[in-house]
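Self-study notes.
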Amino acid sequence: MAMIQFQNVTFAYDGSYDNVFDNLTFQIDSRWRLGLIGRNGRGKTTLLRILAGELRARGQLVLPLAPALFPFRVPDEGELTLTVLRACAPGAPDWRLMLELNALGVPEDALSRPYATLSRGEQTKAQLCALFAREEPYPLIDEPTNHLDMAGRALVAAYLRGKDGFLLVSHDRAFLNDCIDHTLSLNRASVTVQRGGFDTWERELDAKNAMEEARNAQIKKDVARLSESARRQAEWSRNTEKTKYHTHPSEVAAVDRGYIGARAAALMKRSLNTQARIQRDIEEKKSLMKDVERVGELKLSPLAHPKRVLVEVRNGSVVYDGRTVCAGVRFALERGERIALVGRNGAGKSSILKALCGQGGALSGEVSVAGGLVVSYVPQSAGHLRGSLRDFIAETAADETLFKTILRNMDFGRQQFDKGIEHYSEGQKKKLLLARSLCQQAHVYVWDEPLNYIDIFSRLQLTALILQAQPTMLLVEHDRAFVEQVCTKVVDLDAAQG
């Protein structure tokens, strides 16, 4: 058994406003299939990079195994896939690479093709094969599902379930449940390590939050009572001080001013001591407030269109460079429906969304869109975002207060508002696109893989919002749990091929 230990690890990026970690302390067993979860910006990728030796932190880190960080950097994607994998897994025999490739269903001819010609999903699988073909590594796996369709996620989850010992960052609940046996959670002010997958972790979190919320509510009442006592003491102290100068006429003849001053001073001292004791009690009570992970509420105000059918596609097809990737696509989006387009990577899902939103795309066939339809579109990629948050909000013509309130409810720290967007994590960038859409009143919300890089808590928020607001939606998403919970209909583009 090899234990990995963090002891008082502190880290901040150069020029950063704040520390990513402050005295981070925990230990884990390297044999666990361990899932790492937490809000965007909590430092999940940073923790992996510290373990991989790419970043140096203060404190003590014990890692008795050689780390290997996924995804690997590929300097030249024009090289053959086999050459790329040999570089990712130095010393691994080709037969081992082939064995792992077969387990993930990557065709053998992919090895003789340029790496750049592989789909993003195939690249992900190929790199995972190289990761586990290596001898004696400790795999550090950073969000492997972002470019995998539902079938690919299920296949990779089954593949990982057969491995021993890795640390995996993912926000896909179903994927985590399928492949991990322990969970490491980076909370707001603590770290928790426990046995079980996401569902086990969520049940225990809900129970803990309910207990701590009740305890915190009692502490708040105690603090309010003590604060009121402190206010009364302060008022009594001020009145006591006044007696030095405003003695009642009946007392003047009986006592002198010196005695009155001494008595006032003694009373004042006792009052101040009492106030200090009460303030210490208040601070002690506040220190007992526990680390509760809250999920704020989001708001959405969809528009109602007079027509029942808002979008309809008949005999639709998508053609790339003369190659038909999907055909026979047929669906109708009615008011109040939420349709998910599913299918393998490269099946034309994004092209259909783009075409329906007037963003390009290669959709042909009989397409009808209701007149006057207002559409709110969230693109798949947020990589183009740059500049200041204020400029981004101004460009969207959204209300700045509303926009920032949505971000705060999605756990955006206020310090992030002053940073350049290019310095945001991928999850934080995606939240900007989602916040822009939530600020818009629209008849149809068209979201292309909205959950890529988005943390689990925000996924739960979006699920609750959609179920409450009941907007009309057309989306592409590979998070099985999300689709099952929010969508009223699923259109399988792979099935449409026939």
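Second protein, same conventions, sequence then structure:
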Amino acid sequence: MRSIAVKLTLAFLLVGLTGAVLVAISVRYRTQREFDRLVVDQNQQALVANLTRYYQIYGTWSGVEAVFLPPVQDSSLPLHNPDPRWNIRRSLFVIANPDGTILFGGSPEIAGRKLKSRELNKGVALQVNGETVGWLIFVPTIDRWQPGTPEGNFLLNVSQATIFSALAATAIALVVGGVLAYSLTRSLRELTTATKELASGKLGYQVKVRSNDELGELATSFNQMSSELARSNELRRKMTADIAHDLRTPLSVIMGYTEALNDGKLDPSPEMFSVMHIEALHLSRLIEDLKTLSLADAGELPLMLQSIPPEVVIKRAADTYRVKADQKGITLQVAISPDLPEITVDVERMAQVLGNLIDNALRYTPSGGEIQLSVAATGEEVRLDVKDNGSGIPAEYLPYIFERTRLGDKARQQAEGETGLGLSIAKSLVEAQGGSITVQSEVGVGTTFSIHLPLKPEVS
């Protein structure tokens, strides 16, 4: 199969050749037509008058060739409006009798030929006293310009120049088309090579952006995609390492106790079984969190959507964590704006999201601090805020706070027994219900997590 470059080159060649041929034909036709018109306009009117005058005087066409000679050669001929243009070559015009038989003029090949009516209609009827006594016909209308004559040579030169120009235009079109086709397909070839590199596992491979057109946009989009794939792969690798670390910790504790019990090095005790149970619960939560994230990524997270007043969700979360907040000496407040529209959410999933956010706020807010849960309608969305006056998050970690890596953990050290995936799960659950989640924080001042839920959600 021919390459796109060859196809484009052939297309340019075809277009150039077609255009050149059409221009050549048009130029040839219009040149001859205008040239014929020029000759006729310059000579026919005076020639008709002189021929009519000649027939009026002599009553015959015999000796009519004198009309085509300069007046100085036959001063006795009463020509009309003497003019140097009378010296007209006889090959330009023919004179025919009323029935169409050529009497004079033209080339020797057409002498004595009887013209058809359609050919006579191209000429001018010579009339005397209202009677047609002959016909004056411009030769090129019934026969082509003869080679060797100045007129024929002129038109031949025009035709040759037109053909040469057409060939030159075709050659230029071929060269320009080839260069342009190569330039256009170079980016495509580079993108093809890049996709093969990407398929072979070389993530992050970049191509050179050579233009600002659609191909340039395609190359830019490819580079962005390649970079995102490389970044996602790196994040996935880090997340896998983090998960392996988190799984290994409770498993190590459980395996240590079970091996000691099996070897008889330790005697069983309620405290030992309590520790093993706590680690097993931690392991179970981690597995459940991973399952939730996997379902959300695959778009298969089951949702039970229903329309509900947002204050119901906020009050339920506040009631769930009020005792825990009181135990830590933290004030838990609720602020609800009036006349709120209903939201369409999965109540249990939203309880899980708010639970993660409130649990984080309780973990990093000191005793005597305050956590505020609020809900308000803003434009086409409802916003739920979880605000604390805790330690805050350094600005350099905010872009990574929802990622499934330990970058976010540097901002908030995980408490024992937590999986470290709570914020990632919260983000996935909110987005699965058509919303979004954002964070604002300042070290030493506090943190605000905002859940934005559109009034008409597009559930993924």
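Instructor comment on the second fold: The CA atoms of residues 95 and 104 lie 5 Å apart.
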